[in-house]
């Protein structure tokens, strides 16, 4: 990630100020490694403003400790992060989208149903099915919809889609790039 950020900065003709942002920096491990890797790039650290998207107070305290020499600025939402700092932004998000809330759809005889958690007759938690709202159905890609078998489960995330849209809008407005690393399944399972 550090080499990628430094390469991008150099390709952008080394702007004198730019935000290096991370969404969901956790314990600051990835960012610490990226900053270590960019130490030898003349002017990079002097131009960089560190911006973090984090809502957890315990993690903020850990990030403050680990990144204390870089004066990080914290933001509580994607819009604020994308407005933070000056210049083109370089955004890193490693397994950030995996941590956002999901909703599940399960293929039934007549199409997709929303899989929900309810309580059964004994008061224990159990899965139940309900008609899927149209906004969730619209998030199922056509190939998945056409190839799904009965009882297949597919996850969608309106929150994830909204955050990604905010990141894309911010990049479009101010310039820069994003390195997003996430894992998932492209087919129901």
Write the layout of secondary structure elements.
Blueprint: H1 2-11, E1 18-23, H2 29-37, H3 44-47, E2 48-53, H4 57-66, E3 73-75, H5 78-83, E4 89-94, E5 103-108, E6 111-119, E7 125-131, H6 134-137, H7 142-147, E8 153-156, H8 158-174, E9 176-181
Parallel strand pairs: 1-2, 1-4, 2-3, 4-9
Antiparallel strand pairs: 5-6, 5-8, 6-7
Plain-language structure description:
By secondary structure, this protein is an alpha/beta fold. It has helices at about 1-10, 30-35, 45, 55-65, 80-85, 135, 140-145, 160-175; strands at about 20-25, 50-55, 75, 90-95, 105-110, 110-120, 125-130, 155, 175-180. Helix 4 links the parallel strand 2 (about 50-55) and strand 3. The mean pLDDT is about 95. It has a 5-stranded parallel β-sheet, sandwiched between helices.
In short:
The chain contains 8 helices and 9 strands. The chain is of the alpha/beta class and 189 residues long.
Quickly list its features.
single chain; 189 residues; alpha/beta; five-stranded parallel sheet; four-stranded antiparallel sheet; 8 helices; 9 strands
Query: Which residues sit in consecutive blocks of at least 5 with pLDDT less than 50?
Result: none
The global form is: elongated
The radius of gyration computed from the alpha-carbon positions, rounded to a whole number of angstroms, is 20 Å
Q: Can you count the helices?
A: 8
Separation of termini? 31 Å
Q: Tell me which oligomeric state these chains represent.
A: single chain
User: Biggest β-sheet: count, sense, barrel?
Assistant: 5 strands, parallel
